[in-house]
Each structure stands twice: as C-alpha cells, then as structure tokens.
C-alpha cells in the first residue's frame, strides 16, 4: 500500500483489519481544498555588531584569543571557538574565569524594535534564544516594556502551564523559549535506527522526507541508563567535532555528507553500533532494524507505556455519551481545546485536569497518573 508516498508498516495479521477500518471512514481532501492559509513569509534581518564587538569576534575567529577589559578569552578547540562566536552575536562572552561579560546590545535592540512592531499590530511573538544571559536580557526587556510573557527554559518546572498561558491567556503575548540541545537525544536522532524509522513511516514532498512531530513522538526510544546517555553524548560530540574540522576547510554540511569522509563515516558507524546494541543487537539491514523498532513499540503499547492522558479523557467522555460540544457546555472548557487534548496536539493544562476530574467525579491524581500527551515520553 502506498498512499500519498506514505507507507505504513504492519504485521501481516493487522493489514486486513486496518484496510477494512480505513475504507469505512476515509475521506480524502487536499490542503488547498480545506485550508485558506496565507503563504509562509520568511524575513531575515541582518544585525551589525558594534565596532568593539566586531573586534572581539574577529580576534577569536582568527587567533582563538581575545582580551577583555580585565580578563581574557582563549579557545582550545574548534567547538569552543564556535561557541564563543555564537555568544558574541548574542551580546555576551564568557571569559577564561567563567565570568559572563556584556559585549553587545545590537541584537537585543533589534529585538526591541520587532517587539514594538508586533505589539502595535496586536500580534503574539515566540522568541527563541540559546544562552542563559540572552534569556535573562529578553525577560528584563519585556518587564521594562511592561509586556506579559510566558517562559520555557531551565528552572521552569510547569512548562505545560506556561505554553497554555501563552496560547489562551491575554496576559501573555510573548513566549520566551530557551533552546538547549541535549546531545544524547541528538545522537539518537542521527542514528541509523531513527533514520530507518523516518524513511519507512514519513510522508514525502517530491523526493524529500517530510518529518512530522508524530514521527518523533512515537519513535520508541531504548531504555537508557545515565551511563548510556553519557556515552551517546560523547559519540555525538565526536561527530560534531569532526564536522567542525571539515567546516574549517570551507566544506558545507551538504557537501560533507555527499562524499562522507572516512573519519566522519567511522564516527557514525561507532554511534550506529552503540545505538543498535541499546536495542538489543546489531542488525543486518533496515528490515531487521524496523522489525525491532516495531517490536519495541508494540511491547510498550501493550504494557501501557504509551497510553496517554488524552486516551483516558476520550474514554471518559464517550462513556458518558457526550459530544465535545456538550462537554464544553458542561465544563466551560472550549470545544476546540478539548479536541486538541484528545488528539494529543497539546498538553492538558493543570487547571483543565482539575475541572475534568471534578466533572467526572474522580480524583485528579487518577488523571495525573497518565503521561500528559507530549510530556509523556
């Protein structure tokens, strides 16, 4: 079966039942027929650093060394150099003593203008930043402007509630999102196991793979100990280091993987072998890899590892014979929001859990025991 270049993989005994169910409810429309969306607009704003910041940037880029007012910065390897250059463009630089120095306000001033324009047009903003000092500066800027915001970053425990506030509450018109890459997750995502999963289950746009949230959400991660995560991180860091060394010679990422030099190929093979062992063996080909991934996925489905709060909420509603609209009237929660909860599109807010538990006459701890949609990995 090949529907829209998306090929489901099933056990043989599941195929007939799936096709019967699919053809009983399937109705196909194209995106153009059912959505009236404007074209995506991409706007790149170039921000010029101040003269002193440019001097620092050039010094580290060319000599791996720079002097600050009362300290100095040295970069021992390529990765550290790239990190420090990124810090400068964000307005800060960490010296050799670990002290964070403010070196530029150009990017923050540009953001301030963008925020003012968005507020004048009554729009909401999602602001992403990588480094802690940048996040702190953005929060301080919004507070000075007396603009309400939600924030998702390290140290914020109730992230689901922050996202819910941004989406549905008028007091939060900006969402600050801290981007912090986790190396062991990156390692799994660039492994042959994950690539096999993506190739078999993804849709395609022309010849390009279309990576959707559901591919990641349902990817069956192996059981990991802390030592496994540390080893994955080390293998990922090695690959990034090799990439960076090739970048120094003017090679692009696309060109690098077109010819795949021996050092990078060897690093990927080491990662793939380690990841496969986490899944219980070394596999001959993609068919064996996919077979193992399906086994892991189905085992967790049966054991309940993948039963989400959304499934329980839908079951409770259907047991009472209620439509989403009827439940909305009785609980005061918008029907569209209830639908998103049941489709696992967003996490269920704590306030909604309290309301629904009270309505169904159950203790909220019974609902909180289920993985909360996207946070249930």
Q: How would you describe this structure to a colleague?
A:
With 377 residues, this protein is mainly alpha-helical. Helices cover 56% and strands 8% of the residues. The strands form four sheets. It has a three-stranded parallel β-sheet with strand order 5-7-6. Strands 1-2 form a two-stranded antiparallel ribbon. Helix 3 runs antiparallel to helix 4, helix 8 crosses helix 11 and helix 11 runs antiparallel to helix 13. The chain is globular. The N terminus is likely disordered.
Class derived from helix and strand content:
mainly alpha
| Helix-strand topology string | HHHEEHEEHEHEHEHHEEHHHHHHHHHH
End-to-end C-alpha gap: 30 Å
Beta-strand percentage range: 5-15%
- Stretches with pLDDT under 50, minimum 5 residues: 1-5, 302-306
The outline comes out as globular
Rg, rounded, reads: 25 Å
Distinct helical segment count? 19
**Average pLDDT, to the nearest integer?**
80
Helix content: 55-70%
In short:
The protein has 377 residues and is mostly helical. It is 56% helix and 8% strand. The protein has helices spanning 12-25, 31-34, 51-63, 78-90, 106-120, 132-144, 159-168, 183-189, 192-201, 213-217, 226-247, 253-259, 262-278, 286-303, 309-319, 324-331, 335-342, 350-360, 364-368; strands spanning 65-67, 72-74, 92-94, 100-102, 125-129, 149-152, 174-178, 203-205, 208-210.
